[in-house]
Specification:
With 52 residues, the chain is mostly helical. It is built from 1 helix and no strands. The longest helix has 11 residues. 0% of the residues are buried. The mean pLDDT is 83.
Length: 52
């Protein structure tokens, strides 16, 4: 039995801090851009009504 609604979706974001303070693995497939709280807030404004 599933408690997840059939129309549910995974909608989350990752905020990546300073690469110097939070180093990533040397061997990786992708390097995300650094972001801060203001970038997250702007992202939420930009995409809130875009249906994404």
């Amino acid at each position: 039995m599933s408690f997840i609604h059939e129309l549910a979706c995974d909608c989350h974001v990752h905020v990546i801090g300073s690469h110097q303070r939070y180093p990533m693995l040397e061997r990786r497939f992708y390097t995300p851009a650094e972001a801060n709280l203001n970038a997250l807030r702007q992202h939420m404004v930009d995409y809130r009504w875009a249906g994404l």
